[in-house]
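Field reference: sequence -> structure
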Amino acid sequence: MVEPLSKPIMAGIDRQHPLPIYYQLKELLREKIATGVWKPGELVPSERELSESYDISRMTARQALNELVSEGLVYREQGRGTFVAEPKLVQRLSRLTGYTDDMRERALRPSSRVLRLEMVEAPLHVAAMLRIQAGAPVVLLERLRLADEIPMAVETSQLHFNGMEGLLQEDFARNSLYNVLTTKYDITPARAEQQIEAARCDQHRQGALQVEVGAPVLHTTRVTFDQRDRPFEYADSVYRGDRYIFHVELT
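Structure field:
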């Protein structure tokens, strides 16, 4: 059960403060989540309970909860209430790393399920990014990426380099793509150009990610270059919007 809220007003609501009351309440609730007072999966007090505990209107309580839902800190289930969401994973974009290393740095158990691994013809936009002819052969590797068995992303890589057909014999459910490229093909990922946009999940990825069609996702496209500054990978990935944050440090 969720720990009962403290006494009204004295717990942190300041009616003389210029910040709106709903915002003050939202920050109080956010702190309970951040400090672990409320743990993932636990039920959050209802609008009525918040209203009575803090001596505020139910509309104000509803607005605070709506903000937390929008930020992905809590989620609603019809007929059951509002619950604390699992914390989002933060991926820093200041350096080029693979998914496996990212998850291990966070003490999570990474795993992959190979959805497709085959040779295909490069579409026009992929060919342009990889600087090859449209229709040239590329290896398509589509994987569901998980952390502690929770689906996080569907990553689709299209790769082109000499000897690429050898990738078809690899077990990418167990092996890291970048480790295989570095150790077996003398291809070291050196830099990448990446774009990120907000999107909605389509039917193709909905089942694998275990979200509803139209759920918010982060859609990324990336061209990766090797140590000789040659593009070898075009990656098109979809990350769950409720589980992922991309962090960029600007100087």
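Note: The first strand starts at residue 43 and ends at 44.
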